[in-house]
Amino acid sequence: MPRHATALVAAFLAGAACFGGMAHAAPATPDASAKPAPEAAKPEDPKPGKPEPVILANHKAVYDLSLASTGGTRAVESARGRIVIEFKGDSCRGYTMQTRQVTVLESGESGSRTSDLRNTTFEGGEARDFRFRTVTVLNGQPSPAVDGTADASGDAFKVRLNEPKKDQFTAAGPVLFPSLHMRRLVQAARAGDTTMSAKVFDGSDDGRKVYDTLAVIGRRATAPANAAASDRDKPLHEGAMAAVPHWPVTLSYFTQGEGERTPIYTLTFDLYENGVSGALKLDYGDFAILGDMTRLELDKAPDKPCAP
Length: 308
What we know:
The protein has one domain (6-298). The chain is globular and about 55 Å long. Helices cover 10% and strands 43% of the residues. By secondary structure, the protein is mainly beta. Residues 19-47 have low confidence and may be disordered. It has a 15-stranded antiparallel sheet that branches.
């Protein structure tokens, strides 16, 4: 399943993969503003001129999960859980992200399923190399670990898997890793672009999937994303985060292919200029889950981009 909101996307998606048919019973219903996937999803180039560097905030965020809506043939009756994400690094040292997601889904048809997912990734500062490892326990039973590396430095995108068994595959590029995808999204939003398409790899699910993605970007805001009286995403209403520019984004994930396709997952969120994400909602098709930020720890931001 897909990582940051690209981490968060991955955490959500990884959780969905753990529930098999419960989460994959139907394709996600796209947001009204979403568009069909382009025939060949490629990263968009920034507008002419050198864009201002995007500095992603080193932070630890906690999101409580709850059921937003349910329906379809395999309805989920309740959902709860928590995601904890710790993101560190910069474009010189590279980016490390540790994610833990515990999710409990209740369904009258398939009963209760509890997933405990732990994921660690490292992305090189120039986004040419990537390491990933995911360990999942489903209803108390460990699943085989997924461990591997990816290389985006050549003409072809290459992935080598170490676990659960040694294997490798290639894919047509260009392919973005999560932190670079996040920086490209911020650059596109700053430039006033309303859409951005890209191929993305984050090592989620079985480590074998490159996704076509389409982001639909809304209008910039600087006031808190939610009303001050709202209990949701409280850490984003307070302190320095309350004044950070942000944009509403609908990010759809598609299996690779030709022509118009229905997204597998659709994530809506507020994209902050420093890479923090709020107002999360992930639509799996038969049900949708909300992520409410309950805690945010921000490291002191650097005054300027790092120097190699």
